[in-house]
Fold this protein.
Amino acid sequence: MAYRALDVANYVVHRALETGQPITHLQLQKILYYLEANSLVKNGEMLFEDDIEKWRLGPVVPKVYHQYKIFGSEPISYIPEELVIDEESLNVFLKNFNPESIKEQTKHIIDPIIDKLLQYNGPFLVDQTHKHEIWLEDADRINSGEKGIKYDKKQIKKYFEKHPQMLEILK
């Protein structure tokens, strides 16, 4: 069962805040990308269902971007409440993130990766993702302003299986 990317993102922020490691929105996006790549290669399945897009500063999950853009380039200081609409009643309410929504088994796998990647700043992580052929192949389109270019999850898996050294950053 794959999670929603926003739940994984919220957990990453929770982990950063819990361990006293500052995290920016830019770092968060790249950490999500590496978590997904690791899950695809090591577990053969998606960690989260949401699409990852190729943006000028590397991989971005749009739903997470919109939830966390309020922080700009400043460190994220809290997990924003999520606006939820109950489809049956059409009631609207705010929901707080519950870290228990991420299974312990998943936390055991992703915590060391999160902790490792929090050691790197956003620009360094951007530089790393810009070296990946799966970003470079669309660089001209991305840099010319084209929007909505998605990573294919199968393509991510295949790339990192072929280039395992690109996941060395996680160790």
User: Anything to note?
Assistant: The CA atoms of residues 13 and 79 lie 7 Å apart. The chain has a mean pLDDT of 95. The helical segments are 5-19, 25-42, 62-68, 104-117, 122-130, 133-136, 139-143, 153-162. The longest helix spans residues 25-42.
